[in-house]
Amino acid sequence: MTSHETVAWPRARTAVAVEDALARVGASVGELRELLGALLDEGRGYVVGSLAAGLGNSGSDIDVIVLCDRRSSDAPMLFFLGDTSVDLQYYNAGDPAATMAALPGERVRLAAGWCALGCAPAMTLQRRIGRWLNASPLDPAFPDIVDPAATPVAAAALVRGAVESLVLKIFAARTIGAAGLPSAAAWRRAGRALVEVLARASGELFIGEKWIVARAVRAGLDRGLARRAFGCSDERQLREILSAAGLSALGEPGVVELRAADGLERLELGATTWTLVGGRRAVPCDPAELVPEALETASAATVLDAVAEGVVVPALDRPELDERVRACAA
């Protein structure tokens, strides 16, 4: 089942009160306001990041964003409150609504939650959305950064981002194993990616891999399933876990294709055809032969070499992935 309507959704975890967030690093709202002064007067200030998400500790930074009329800044300004670093960054007040409007609106209900159809936002934007959804306002009168009506759309897009990461990691692990190389570590990475999918689908939308265990516990995931996913070491184990999670179709091959990297140049030197990668490194191969059809029939070792050399890049077949997501519909 797909939907364009507002639907029941596991609510994004509510951000902790700003006083409690700052207390984790021994700071207070008053101290933060005194440090940043007039810089906060530009607009609405929020504490974001792991502290606001209730995951930070005494060694965490304080991340502050201000929504204002000025254009978004490219990088944060750095301050120190005692030994704690404070990052302050400005965003245009219209950015959140514009970002939500650009996200895919169609979504499918999975056993664990809802997943968007269509292209997920880039990882940088996924992290930003996760921070917006877990923001603690410096003034309780400030509204949520993301309109609550848009939260289901944002959440489904973040789940889609985790699904895309999962299938790419499965492709990597499968290719490494097919090349005869040790692949247990790659399958563990895929298992962690599966936990990420389930955590986001359960409403844990702050994105940070270092906190994945805590987020899995907080999301209420089945502990046995999560433990198996974290310890997964081969394809058979991952397929069993995917089946238990109702996501078997995501483990089937055919979702990732290989395409020639951008900016390749063909050079003829004697009897050998070389490819110039990035304008500086020559690899002995012909880019004309690096079409997906040819690579699909190549050996796994050849594929790995081509990826490692930067001659080809894995690319998602998103329409096919949409069909796999639909196949997992609850």
From TrEMBL:
The keyword Kinase appears for this protein: no
Keywords per UniProt: Transferase
* The keyword Transferase is annotated on this UniProt entry: yes
Q: Give every Polymerase nucleotidyl transferase domain span.
A: 42-73
Recorded superkingdom: Bacteria
> InterPro entries of this UniProt entry?
NT_sf, Polymerase_NTP_transf_dom
Q: What is this protein called?
A: Nucleotidyltransferase-like protein
Q: Which organism is it from?
A: Nocardia mexicana
